[in-house]
Amino acid sequence: MNPKVLIIEDSNIMSRLWEMTFENEGFKVLVANSGKDGIQVAKKEHPGLILLDLMMPELDGFGVFESILADEDTAKIPVVFFSNFSKAEDREKAKRMGAVDFIIKSNILPDQLVERIKEILAGKSFLK
Predict the structure, then answer these.
(1) Low-confidence residues of the chain: pLDDT under 70
(2) Domains in the chain with CATH codes
(3) Nearest 5°: CA angle at 119, between 7 and 61?
(4) Nearest CA to 6 among 36, 67, 39, 59?
């Protein structure tokens, strides 16, 4: 059985695309369209993995991740940053914080993303 994946993404179009992609592969998908909502969903639903957009209004992905890490109920949930931006310092910050991957949206096809997430859920980390 595939675990729940929480997608925290402020773009409705992008979140719907990824939601359908994961549902088609048998995942249960939760979606939050803001960082604050994402934190609440993570606390309530305890997903198996969080796919987290970096650039969001009000609370960016790093702020969301800090809140997730600060709560003992959510601190161990694997987090994958998912961004359109590829600054080396963002990737390094994500790594230092404990993210398991940092994926550039434009560099990955939907089926590749699903396979990558399956590998992460099986215990592989891509940020080294």
Answers:
(1) 1-2, 124-128
(2) 44-108 (3.40.50.2300)
(3) 30
(4) 39
Q: How far apart are the first and last CA of the chain?
A: 28
C-alpha 22/C-alpha 96 separation (Å) is: 28
Beta-bridge partner residues of 52: 8, 81
CA atoms within 13 A on the CB side of 36: 3
Helix axes 12-24, 110-121, angle to 10 degrees: 70
Q: Which helix (H) or strand (E) holds 80?
A: strand 79-83
Predicted pLDDT of residue 22: 95
Average pLDDT, the chain: 92
Whether the CB-CB separation of 52 and 61 falls below 8 Å is answered with yes
CA atoms of 70 and 114, how far apart (whole Å): 28
